[in-house]
Amino acid sequence: MRPNLTKDRLAQNKVVLGCIMQQYRSAEIPRLFAAAGFDFLFIDTEHGGFDLETVQDLIRTSNQSGITPLVRVGELLYSLVARALDVGAQGIIFPRVEDPRVLEQAIGWTKFPPRGTRGFGISAPLLDYEQQSFPSIIEHQNANTLVVVQFESQRSMDRCDELLSVKGIDVALVGPSDLSISLGIPGEFEHSKLLDAVSKFIEVCHRHKVAPGIQVRTPALAKAWVGRGMRFVGCGSEQTMLLEKAKDTVAELRGVKN
User: Fold this and answer.
1) Burial (Cβ within 10 Å: 0-12, 13-18, ≥19) of residue 128
2) What pLDDT does residue 126 have?
3) Which of 56, 137, 167, 198, by CA, is between 20 and 30 Å from 123?
């Protein structure tokens, strides 16, 4: 059974890097991101248009390539969480979390009893057709499923100490776009109001021994947040990377003189 390499690196206090997928339904992209050196793939079913079969294909090539597939579910529903895990996701990203009681229940869906309430639906492909006992599967899955909780509003920041007290959180992930809107400074990612809020948030993460993380749009922002203490950092998306590289290439070629 496969270990969760991203979870292992976080346990070693390392910085892990990833990229989000939202638009392009190509199972080749996880292989490309793995070859580039990303640690994890952020598969977005909240804002992206992927169905479960596409998610399954993206997860399969991720697992085969050694990049950790994480799925952001559209909302906190057991069926969305369980099906993503049963097709091979190595972690779940929970969006828009503001209520500790709801969060506690949702985290329980990611773990088999006695640690949680996940139903047993493990299929042979998920195990690479290995013969494993129920106890060994349960122990491995519980230990290797990464739980990522998003903080995206003023309310979630105000309650971060209470939310981070819930057991089972591996990563607390700031969503700066929605947070900037909630703070009344939409899109101002270097505004002092946002910087102060997130800096205090990182301190709370440290107290609860939860890895702080953030999903940003540019390498410059990513590097800045690594310097401020973020250890789980997502940067850009598949469509923005392709567009930016294409624009750079065209601009360079247009500058060639005949």
Assistant:
1) exposed
2) 83
3) 167
Residue 77 neighbours by CB distance under 10 Å = 12
Rounded-to-10 torsion of CA 201, 205, 206, 207: 100
Query: How far apart (Å, rounded) are the C-alpha atoms in residues 227 and 123?
Result: 42
Give which of 115, 232, 90 is closest to 168, Cα–Cα: 115
Mean pLDDT of all residues belonging to the chain: 95
Alpha-carbon distance of 81 to 117, in angstroms, equals 12
Between the alpha carbon of residue 35 and those of residues 10, 48, 217, the distances in Å are 20, 23, 21
pLDDT band at 258 (very low <50, low <70, confident <90, very high): low
73 CB-near residues (< 8 Å, 6+ apart):
45, 46, 80, 81, 84, 92, 93, 94, 95
pLDDT of residue 257: 64
Asked if 80 and 55 touch (Cβ cutoff 8 Å), the reply is no
Q: What is the CA radius of gyration of the chain?
A: 19
Q: Please, what are the domains in the chain?
A: 5-254 (3.20.20.60)
In angstroms, rounded to a whole number, what is the distance separating the alpha carbons of residues 102 and 123?
28
Instruction: List C-alpha distances in Å: 131 to 121, 141, 212, 254.
Output: 15, 15, 37, 58
CB contact burial 93-115 (16+ within 10 A = b; e otherwise):
bbbebbeeeebeebbbbbbbeeb
Q: Is the pTM of this model over 0.85?
A: yes
Confidence band of 230 (pLDDT split at 50, 70, 90): very high
Residue 130 tokens, joined? 């290995």
Q: How many Å apart are CA 145 and CA 85, to the nearest integer? A: 8
